[in-house]
User: Fold these one by one.
Assistant:
Number 1:
Amino acid sequence: MTAISRKRRGQARLIELLLATFMMVVAIIFVMNFTRPIKSQYVRETSDLRRLAYNLLNDFAKARVYERIIVQGNLTGADWENEMKLMLSTSLPPEIVFKMEVYEMKINATTGEIYFDRLDHGRITNVEDFDNMTLYDAESVSYTYVVVGRPDSVRGSVLYIILVLGFGG
Amino acid sequence: MRPACSYRRSRRGQILVATALLITIVVMSIVVSVYEAQLFFLKTRSIVVREVVGSITADFSRATAVVLAAATRAYYNYSRFRAFLSRFSNLGLSYGARHNFTVARMVANAYLQYWLAATSTAYSSYGPQISYQIGTLDISKYIGRKRSVSDLVKGYWYWPSSASVAYAKLRLNLTNAGFYGWESDVLVGVFLTVFPEPVKEDPVANTTTIRINVRVDDGIPYSELLTKGWIEVYYPEKKSGYWTGRWKKAKIVDVTYEGFGNYTVTFQPYVEELADPLTGKNFVPLMVVVSDDRGIIVEAMTYRYIAFKVYKRTPQTVSTVKPSVVCEDQYSLWGFNGQNGHTVVSGDVGVYARYTTVASLIFPNGSTLDVYIPRYSYVRVVVDHDSSRYGAAQIIYDTWYNGELVLDDVHVSSFTVNYVTYTNVTVDYMQLYFSGVTWRRYFNIVFEGNWVDLRSPCTYPYKSGQWRIELDRVSYIQDLDIGSPTSVNLDRAYATYGVAYRYVVNTINRPAATPDEVYTLEMTWNYSFYFLGHRLPVRRGFRILPFPFMPIKQLRVNITEDGTLATLRERPIQYENWTVVLWHGVPVRVPLGLADPQTDFYGNDTLVFQVKFPRLDISNQTVIIWWHDDLDTEPAAYPTNITYIEDATHKDVWHPLYDVEFVDQEHTTSRGYVDYYGVAAFVLRDPITDYAFGPFNIHAFGECGSSLGKWRPYGTWTIYYHYMRYSYIKAPIRIFALLNTSRVNSVYSSCYVPGGLTNYYDTLSLVEIINGTRYIPVTTYVYWKRSHTDVGYWMYSAMGRGIADWFVYVDTNNSTDGTPFAWTSYPPVVEKDNPSFFAAYWNDVMGRAAIIDRASVDNLYNTGVEPKFEVTMFAPGGFKQGSIETLYNPIDYYSTVYRGTLVVYNGVFMDFRPRGEGWLNLTDVSDYWENGYIYAPMFLEDYLPEIGPP
């Protein structure tokens, strides 16, 4: 009776040890899942691209670039997409590829539905075929801009701008 | 056993402790690791969150700027910025709502809701939850007075320091980024300060330089006014040294930025520097408008009020005259010398020429004709000479000795020789000896003047005074020499009846308290002042500052009560719209109604306010027209005692002293009284018992059988009693009733014509019921489309329904001429000659006076053949009536009113009492009319108040 009790106590110790080991392993795995992103390099670079995109779009807003290029271009029929491409090219590092799409956001007065009226023709990009090219890293940002500057006829319009920045493959 | 057991137990405890420790370490490691993981997660994402939040906040700020631009541009000049503002028309920002910040605010909220939806869609990948909260923000530090923004958009304009501001708190969550609770105060605005005193003025170079300060948003100096914004300066147009009321855009020749938002602006022309009438500080009258690059407009003025004084001109005493007979005789020779007056000679004389002679005639066009008068020919002259119109003349009519008729420069209405008649000519000279006189043989001579030397048949020691000498049926004139238009010398004229009056002046001292001397003044946008249709005189050299161009609803008035600035308080003001129409070729100023308070004060707009002179010793009152800076200001609403009631039995304006019931085609029957069959009149009723005193008939012509006043205006009164858009604000000062009709009809069933007649006269009549006064102004224009002949033609007739017991009038000599008199059953109609501006009737508790102005008296005599004052004792049916009436033509005989005749009268119907504050305390009932008479001067042109410097 006594020998059997000792053996069982040893088994209990073993089970305790296994349980503790299991818990530690589970905990470590669980922690690793959070503490070690799989692609830390990717996270860092894409967040930088987003920041770059927003900063650029905000700077353009403060400088009334959208009124001068997009609005005036649409009113006068000038080649505003080329102007915008040039503006972006001169403002971004050369290794970054970009594409910008510009929409006017409108609202259906009766239904309240928001719809987008595209203004550009897909030419605001610094690569030949942006949609089919391989990007190493890329980030797309959305931006809204209430036209606040002159001319009066478009003051109050809301532009919706999508800017994609990336590193070409 | 015991030690072994003890050892095993202790080892077992160590293992348990070690296990617990290990587990604790592991759990803590997990916790720390998870926390670090969370931090890393936020760190890697927060960079983007910050940019997104910044983008959304900046865009909200832009959206807020856009709605503020829309609100301020619409307020300033919708037409000019229609291209921009029409974009918001589907949200409700229309031209009609241009001066309504409440509408602008609703539009702003609608637009921001649209923006919220658009932004939420655009940033949907972040899981945005965006909203904004309207809060209150104190902006006192920006504009130097206590002001705040509490309802999204706000404007404080028209003062030297002005602002257009929008404020909201943006709330933002980005749920997909784990970002919650972002709040951001968004303040957009433009702040403009104009320094009223000019920096420099150069009359030679024709320039003025001022300094302004422009800041935006959170007080940031705005340095881009020249490059991105704009500035406009307006100055008051001036012609012949006086402002016209218009504002002109100045030509800006130089703008210099001096840092910290300060600019000096030089413009043409040179604008005269003025001194504020109350503070003495110098300023140039200017409006400055500034816009930033976002389109937000703000407008500032260099002054905040317009000040002037109203000077009373009514006399301390009033007077009438009573004729006193100095000399009266029948069949006697008269001789007198009169000066400072005029002589009227009328007569109809027919004679047969004893010898051939010649009469030299002068026609009205200046041509002359010598009329040959053969011997024995019949000559008839109808003399009609008034020296005040036709000048000096001489008449000899010797029927006693030589049979001689001499007419020298005598005006005759007709001159007939052997049945050839010349009308309306002046006999330059004719000396005719006659052999016989026909039954036409008399002259009448009347002299009125202020000096008479009476020689025969009696003398009088006092020569000066107001005189009237009447000689009737004069059959012999030795020599009547009207030496000049104002003097006369009569030697021996034989009159059937003659009388010489010398008038005794009855002076009435007005009481010290005059609470009913209340002037209801109208002020137009171009500085014309009116009282009862009369333009008020403005003191020579005094110029009233121009009104700024702003919505009427902003304007207010402060007026003193005792003449000192201590009693300067805000008083009721009413906004009205008047225009001048050409009515049958005559310019007539008529109301279009109450003004739209949201329109700019310009053109037809008129401010109406009341200036009171409650004491005799108060000679002037200060008036300050000022304006609110808050663009949300509503039109002024004040308590009033006048109310318009319209229902099945009422078309009434209630006033504490009388209920005025308008009868017309809409409301034909006066309650419990008479059916007027659509004839337009107004009935005064007791405000407590509703008892009808009887109608005030605004015009009447002819007789219907034995009933007087056959054809009267037939139409509908239009009542103006509230503002457009603001129906809940009642007219605080006066309610109008306007009648414009081309028809007449009869109140007598036997003469009534369904639909009325259009071949008599057109009528344009305006009646005003005024709060806080005892008078009802009545202005009436009548134009005759066809000639008609009948007996009796009434300017007005105020019925009495038997209420009045006493009657009085004042004639053209300022005499009461045998009045007042008490009601009497015989004669049924009392008719008096030469009525003038005042008539009244009363009983022992109350009275009413009809007072017309001098121009109306002139029109009465220009139109009428024989004007009369009448009292009709009975109404149809034999009931006591007791009316007061003024007639152009009497009821005694037929007379014609010709096509093209234009009749105008302008006066008041006034309530008075026999005693109490503001009245003479009269004891004799026959004198009660004096309490109406003491207020009469304020309605006459002679005593109109004057506008002058404060």
Number 2:
Amino acid sequence: MKADAHALHYAVTQFLYHEARLLDEQRWEEWGALFTEDGIYWAPASVDQPDPINHVSLIYEDGLLRKVRLARYKGENAFALQPFPRSTHLIGNVMIDSDAAGVLEVTSRFVMYEYRRDQKQALAGEYKHTLTGENESFRIKRKKVTLVDCEGPREGTSLYF
Amino acid sequence: MTTLLDRRGAAIDVDALVEPNRVHRSVYTDPAIFELEMERIWGRTWIYVGHESQVKEPGEYYATTIARQPVVMTRHEDGKIYVLFNRCAHKGAQLVGDRCGKLKEFRCCYHGWRFAMDGKLLSVPLENGYADQPFNKSHADANMRAAPRYDAYRGFVFASLAADGPDLKTWLGGVASSIDNMVDRAPDGELEVAGGVLRYEQDSNWKFFLENLNDLMHPMVVHQSSSLTARVVAKRELGADAPTPSAIEIIAPFTESYTFFDEMGLHAFNYGHGYSGGKTSIHAKYSDVSEYNARMEKAYGAERVKNIFSVNRHNTVFYPSATIKGAIQTMRVVRPLAVDRTLIESWTFRLKGAPDELLQRSILYCNLINSSANLVGPDDQEAYRRQQMGLESEGLTWINMHRDFGKDEDLGEGHLYARGSSDLAFRNQFKAWKHYMSQGAR
């Protein structure tokens, strides 16, 4: 790997760690601000799902719905979030698949552990980030999260993966 | 003290657990009662299996369960649909391990017995070992056993593990019209399963889910955190005059007023079935999809189309295994796993001949309301879970269903009507529950 490729990989990896940290530290506004104006969060309900329009998804949210979900986190009547769940994300296997015209396609793997009251669940899967911008000013144009068990019967969850 | 609970099931006096306007807490918490429900309700009545469009071609199959027993719906080369127990006639191994697929024939993974898609045994390796035995290839028990009864209504396949009982059409009674209305909304007069499935499990008894469907006193409380928040955020972000995005059109009505839900009304029928809404529902104010009305009018004529669209129901319950929303072509299928564990599946249907936007709206609805990670459903699930835990308390033995008791309007042939805030839907479901549970062993 060339020196600049190393630097880019380092910057991208740091960005992914930063994003996960914001989720785990529940810094929702800062996390939401990582997305571009038209940024999409998509968690398919099937591993070979071609698109989010003609097939159901676990989550398919634009900026408006993301703002609704994040506002709900703070709502006093969100009973499913009382007490509020906690999470830890671990990210690895970060690879830059393409880098063209200022758009990076990045694939990584994650493990997420979620705890709420007496319930805990381990989630794992693949992230595909579409990033724009450079260095510390990366923005997420799309985050696609494919859970290993996205098709299987799933427990309810309110947090972002 | 009321001692009703023999964990072996024998001594349970089920008649004493349900009164016309109250129900004993143990129906939600006692594992012995759950076992009895599997036998007497789920093992007796019509249970939704799947839709004919899931097995279009000969060889296609769809596997599910009835009362926790594995079954498989198939399309045989004779073009007919069969509902068979998913087990080899030999030593009982499940013949299909996947949920759906296409085969030339069943071939058991264990000893290679081959069966046709109608369940008939085709071959056994070294068949001569059975020569001169009372059991051989032509013995009736050598074939896959079919469910005692199965039938379809306008593409919806149901099966019953009991040989006797009302036929499907009679059993559906007044709620067959909800299926009619869903199918009639297709310009080509047919539905097909499309858009995938969402599956999630709840830590709660199956009856909480069924009761909640037409519990019209809960949305404005349980869904404040999502629906009201969506209204506020959309107004703040888009301004009051901007067109409402589809997602907000879907979420916002969950916090309509008590008056709105009260006026939606409740309809109850024999065997625990029912629906809410009718003239209007939370689905009535969605924006028109261009082209759709024109295609409908071309297919049915303006008068009939007006008729079809004048029916707008909220949830129709086919007690105990399924519920549909005809107005937006979605279905949820119920599978009890344990006294405090329930699997729900959410399906969407394409209206054949309609623009793609209709299916896309159904899909959007399910993403927002039915997925395991959605915005609205977690608060329902939390309510069920808290009920499940709360009813472990011996604080109060009975759950009341007194609201508007004795005030139902009798519309004849088992059809009852009440305002939306009534407890009619609960009373009606438990009337059916008692009817099945008190019938004794199958």
